[in-house]
Design goal:
The complex is a heterodimer of chains A (about 300) and B (about 190).
Chain A (H helix, E strand, L loop, with lengths): L1 H37 L2 H29 L2 E3 L6 H14 L5 E5 L6 E7 L2 E7 H6 L2 H16 L2 H28 L11 H24 L2 H15 L2 H13 L35 H5 L6 H9 L1
Parallel strand pairs in A: 2-4
Antiparallel strand pairs in A: 1-2, 3-4
Helix pairs in contact in A: 1-2, 1-6, 1-7, 2-6, 3-5, 5-8, 5-9, 6-7, 8-9, 9-11
Chain B lengths: L1 H59 L4 H16 L3 H22 L3 H5 L1 H36 L3 H7 L14 H15 L1
Helix pairs in contact in B: 1-2, 1-5, 2-3
Classes of the chains: A alpha+beta (about 300), B mainly alpha (about 190).
């Protein structure tokens, strides 16, 4: 079992490095084209600096950013005594240092873990989750999140948020420049290269999305479920929690496609339950669907 | 010439394997040691809390002195226990005595209303849970260590360098037992 966990940790580290290097190369290549187009090497230097800084930033600060996006606040021990002790105790069982504990004020039940390693990790839970679940169910969810920390999923998941977010930002920027700013340069023949660049981005976006999917594959959710169940020795707890979360009709307030993959249960799946009607998930939602169906996870847990 | 080469490479492989397994044993042994000190921290916390508890209860319920004495006795016994097995046995008895103390305290409304007592009860329940948690982690690491010591080929290295098996903390570690404990905690927590 232990060997399994360690090989997995190694894989995740490799994937993180791969992702960061890909990002580096990607941004620098774009910088090269742009600087070639404008005939000024300064732009290339700027892009190189930007990509390096972005990487460093995503390594050191992405967890804080993710918590900020989710509007998470640090929980104090007196107010959230049960949550606090549950996290402490399961951390002891897992042999991990206790992560920082955050609470998100949101009726929709959900949770996620973030951080760059086990010594700098955080777990966040919505108030809706705390109200909805009983003790053994909460234990199941906490164990699942701790499993993500122990398996080293968190750094990769978190870095993905920032880097992919930045690529999306650049893509957006170029699209705007080509569409709205193209008219200004009347004397040359091309919005051409810029147009191509923008097109490349448009094509690339789904590819980035699938990289994202690859990086946080569904297998990893199954694995965190399994590891979590090993910690509590009570898989029924997590199974019943997942069913309850799935059944809840509330939509999360502060969530976007960049952070969706971090949550224990897909925040977008709840769109289906709105108004009791089954809403068909949109194109983007389908691309970014990051979680295996709850019924499969439950089956696996109770198997 | 070729024979020499073959023998040399076999020796090289053996040496590498020995080093790998040796290092594995070192890290397993360190892990188990750390896990044991985790348990120790929680046990000490409980020893520290018990005198406070006894002082608080004494003020309200002097004619429960027998229960109190028993808790004190068992605390001393637990503190003096040597091996993990003895220690686990003593701790189990201490847990039982504390449980009956809390049960008895139900008869004293003044005591139950005491804030200090409520706080101590909460702390002790939490410590009990943490003892269980660290016990599980310890037993997991001990299991890994013991398996490596018995399994081939790592057992050869273990014998060579005299790595020894560790005792589990708690013998009666069957699923039914765990289920019962779980239910108990649920009732006490609320």
């Amino acid at each position: 079992m232990a060997a399994n966990l360690y090989t997995l940790q190694g894989k995740n580290k490799k994937k993180t490095w791969l992702l960061m290097s890909l990002f580096l190369v990607f941004v620098i290549v774009i910088g090269y084209f742009v600087s070639y187009y404008f005939q000024s090497p300064v732009i290339l230097y700027f892009f190189i600096a930007f990509s390096i800084i972005a990487n460093i930033f995503s390594y050191w600060f992405s967890d804080k950013m993710v918590l900020k996006i989710a509007h998470a606040k640090e929980a104090n021990k007196d107010e959230y005594y049960d949550l606090y002790t549950t996290v402490e105790n399961l951390s002891i069982t897992a042999g991990l240092p206790t992560p920082k504990i955050y609470v998100i004020n949101d009726v929709s039940p959900n949770a996620f873990a973030t951080g760059r390693d086990e010594n700098h990790s955080a777990v966040a839970f919505t108030t809706g989750l705390l109200n909805l679940l009983d003790k053994s169910e909460l234990e199941g969810v906490v164990a699942h999140e701790l499993a993500h920390i122990g398996n080293r999923d968190i750094l990769l998941q978190t870095v993905v948020v920032v880097l992919v977010g930045m690529i999306a930002m650049i893509a957006d920027f170029f699209l705007r420049v080509t569409i709205y700013g193209g008219g200004r340069n009347n004397d040359n023949k091309g919005g051409g290269p810029l147009m191509i660049l923008a097109l490349v981005f448009v094509i690339l976006s789904p590819i980035v999305a699938s990289i994202l999917k690859l990086a946080i594959s569904r297998k990893r959710e199954f694995l965190a479920d399994a590891t979590g169940a090993m910690l509590t020795r009570y898989p029924e707890g997590l199974a019943s929690a997942l069913v309850k979360i799935e059944g809840s009709a509330h939509e999360m307030r502060h969530v976007n496609h960049a952070t969706a993959h971090m949550y224990i249960s897909d925040p977008y799946s709840n769109l289906k339950n709105k108004d009791g009607k089954k809403k068909k998930p949109g194109f983007m939602t389908r691309i970014f669907r990051t979680h295996p169906p709850t019924s499969d996870r439950v089956k696996e847990l109770l198997g | 010439m070729t024979l020499g080469l073959i023998i040399l490479s076999i020796i090289a492989v053996l040496v590498i394997l020995t080093v790998v397994y040796y290092n594995k044993f070192i890290s397993l042994r360190t892990q188990a040691g750390e896990a044991w000190s985790d348990i120790d921290v929680q046990l000490k916390r409980r020893y520290d809390l018990i005198p406070n508890l006894i002082n608080t209860v004494q003020g309200y319920a002097d004619h429960e002195s027998k229960t109190l004495e028993r808790v004190t006795e068992l605390r001393t016994a637990a503190m003096n226990a040597g091996t993990p097995q003895e220690s686990a046995k003593a701790e189990n008895m201490l847990s039982g005595a504390l449980k009956s103390l809390f049960a008895v305290s139900e008869n004293y409304p003044d005591l139950k209303a005491n804030e200090n007592f409520a706080e101590l009860q909460r702390e002790l329940t939490d410590t009990e849970n943490k003892i269980q948690a660290s016990r599980r982690f310890y037993n997991t690491t001990v299991r890994d260590l013991n398996i490596s010591i018995e399994a081939f080929p790592s057992n050869v290295v273990a014998n060579m360098f005299k790595f020894t098996k560790r005792e589990f903390f708690d013998l009666d570690d069957n699923p039914e037992e765990r289920e019962n404990i779980k239910v108990d905690f649920k009732g006490e927590d609320k």
